[in-house]
Amino acid sequence: MTTPEYSPQEYLRQSLAASATYRALVGAETAAQALRTIHDDEIPPPADGTEYSAAELAALFPCAVLWEESWSHLTVATDAVEESGVVGLVIHFPVTSVIAGSARAISATVRNLFRGITTDLENSANTPGCLHVDKVTMRQPWERTRGEDVESIGDVVLLTLSVEWN
Question: 63-77 and 38-40 as β-strands: parallel, antiparallel, unpaired?
Answer without folding.
Answer: parallel
